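Annotated sample (chain length 227).
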Amino acid sequence: MTIEPYYQDDFATIYHGDNRQIAPGLGRFDLLLTDPPYGIGLTVKKMKTRGRDPKRGGVALAGNYDPFDWDKSAPSIDELNRLRETAGHQIIWGGNYFALPPSSCWLVWDKVNGANDFADCELAWTNLKKAVRKITWQWNGMIQEIQNKKLAEKKVHPTQKPLAVINFCLNQVPDAKTVFDPFMGSGTTLLAAKQKGLKAVGIELSEQYCEAAANRLSQGVLWTPTK
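Output written by the structure step:
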């Protein structure tokens, strides 16, 4: 059965649905770059009450996101292993939550979060044959707001990664020409890939996030990432 794309342009393709049904028909990619749900119950309600900044009168730092229960369960290790077979190079955010093989190269994102109960860093497992790599990029509070205005970047998903962080991931595999994100969310992976002139395919279960990603991609290339 042929599945029609939800959105498509010269660089990016979005499919709305379950990656377990869609991914097997997509073929092979150079790079799997994704951020699956961790299954830790990080609900929208919890996001709205976490990370309150006392300097802003205790106002919650999380945005207004849709009620889609995106973190009710995590993919099984069998599902992740099937997805890993779609690409020679693999980067999986939240890899510390899954029983993935030992790796010499973890990617570390130092979020410079300050005084709140969010994690100081996030980790991505990779199968890359290199040493650990780190990026420091604040994605919280006033500095985030300044960066967002400069880069025309708006946070529309609770666990959305900054373009700079995803670009950092893409730079780890400079020879990759095709990118696959089976847990697409708001489409940051596809947008970062498009800005580099790479072909990218994403799959997302929530139609609202498919629409948000399509809107971001249709606006074109808004900034030139550091090579």
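Annotation: Confidence is low (pLDDT under 50) at residues 47-65, 223-227.
Annotation: The longest helix spans residues 207-218.
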